[in-house]
TrEMBL record:
Its EC number is 1.3.8.6. Pathway: Amino-acid metabolism; lysine degradation; Amino-acid metabolism; tryptophan metabolism. Belongs to the acyl-CoA dehydrogenase family. It is an enzyme of class 1 (oxidoreductase). Its cofactor is FAD. This is glutaryl-CoA dehydrogenase (ETF). PANTHER family: GLUTARYL-COA DEHYDROGENASE, MITOCHONDRIAL. Residues 250-388 form the Acyl-CoA dehydrogenase/oxidase C-terminal domain. It comes from Patulibacter brassicae.
Length: 397
């Protein structure tokens, strides 16, 4: 029999040797993002979280130089990377903080994706190159105070006024809103009832984006309302490629793919913090890592992190092959965010009282994940999407 080779060394951060399944290019992208997060984010993120701020304007050009903004798009200054490479980048960004990953995700998978897929050639040429470079920031206005899981209930309207459009309404929970240069706003047309997207310069008269404050989650992230008080736009501000909810929902599918991967990064960060702490914290004359109960917790966390990694990689490969369905992305988000939350909560217990401080990443990730589990589609909604696919019965109506 031929020699099958030497089994790989067991590494806590990659127990199942998933690294071996990646290409050289994918590993290079992952390592570059990991190094940037280590050098730029980790030394500062505790302070950002405590102060409730994120230096988005400073970080965006750096992220642009790394090729991470709209990295999965082709042309117009975008990197044209694979879905798997984008996912790996999201893992490393969220290992830093969900807020940093959200900055990249909203910029690329929502705002830039909408322009790239549904915009005109002129709109793509105007907006995508500076957005890819991080010189222009975008946000994505879909959710409203009374229309979250049911975007079809939106009240923001777009009406014709001569050759222009006039937008009126309010959006809520908008990442990047207060720092954006352009907002992709979805509104229901008053003449035919169809949903269309509009590119709204944030300096347009009648537009404002008051920040949402006093958050206990996603503190290192800019979250805002969008208020449109009869904002007048030229006809060419409308995205011409779609006039239905298919437009924003297709962008959300892209963003959710990043969330599937990002949750892995948050979970891994919590697990590794707990593993290191358990090896150094002594109780009753020995490290707590020597006790059966803590080893059980560590084993379960390691299993969940590796299962989530494999699920994300499988979905990434399916997406690159053009075979990934939205219902399968729903399973990925539901499973991986739930797993990450459980890992974070278990890690917090391992760290004891130290786990609630910003000297460790665990409570910060746990708090962020309490938002991740409900944004880009709540856990309940994704469970119903899966249930509908399994049974053929739509439980929403």
């Amino acid at each position: 029999m031929s020699d099958a080779g030497t089994p790989p060394e067991l590494r806590p951060e990659d127990y199942l040797d998933v690294d071996r399944l990646l290409s050289d290019e994918e590993r290079a992208i992952r390592d570059a993002v990991r190094a940037w997060v280590r050098d730029r984010v980790l030394p500062e993120v505790g302070g950002w979280f405590e102060l409730g701020t994120l230096p988005s304007r400073e970080l965006a050009p750096e992220l642009g130089r790394l090729g991470l903004l709209g990295m999965h798009l082709q042309g117009h200054g975008c990197a044209g990377a694979s879905a798997t490479a984008y996912g790996l980048a999201c893992t490393e960004l969220e290992a830093g903080d969900t807020g940093v990953r959200s900055l990249v995700s909203v910029q690329g998978s929502l705002a830039m994706q909408a322009i790239d897929r549904w915009g005109s050639d002129e709109q793509r040429e105007r907006w995508l190159p500076p957005m890819a470079a991080g010189e222009v920031l975008g946000c994505f206005g879909l959710t409203e105070p009374d229309a979250g899981s049911d975007p079809g209930a939106m009240r923001t309207t777009a009406r014709r006024a001569g050759g222009d459009w006039v937008l009126h309404g309010q959006k809520m929970w908008i990442t990047n809103g207060s720092v954006a240069d352009v907002a992709v706003v979805w509104a229901r047309c008053s003449d035919d009832g169809r949903v269309r997207g509009f590119l709204v310069p944030t300096d347009a008269p009648g537009f404002s984006a008051p920040p949402i404050t006093r958050k206990l989650s996603l503190r290192a992230s800019v979250t805002s309302e969008l208020v449109l008080d009869d904002v007048r736009l030229p006809d060419d501000a409308a995205l011409p490629g779609v006039a239905s909810l298919r437009g924003p929902l297709s962008c959300l599918d892209e963003a959710r793919h990043g969330v599937v991967w990002g949750a892995v990064g948050a979970a891994r960060s919590c697990f590794l913090a707990a593993l290191e702490y358990a090896g150094t914290r002594e109780a009753f004359g020995r490290p707590i890592a020597a006790t059966q109960i803590q080893q059980l917790k560590l084993a379960r966390m390691a299993t969940q992190v590796n299962q989530a990694t494999l699920l994300a990689l499988h979905l990434g490969r399916m997406k690159d092959a053009g075979r990934l369905r939205p219902e399968q992305v729903s399973m990925g988000k539901l499973a991986n965010v739930d797993a990450a939350l459980e890992v974070a909560r278990t890690a917090r217990q391992v760290l004891g009282g130290n786990g609630i401080t910003l000297g460790y990443p665990v409570m910060r990730h746990m708090s962020n994940l309490e938002s991740v589990v409900t944004y880009e589609g709540t856990a309940d909604v994704h469970a119903l999407v899966i249930g509908g696919a399994l049974t053929g019965i739509d439980a929403f109506r």
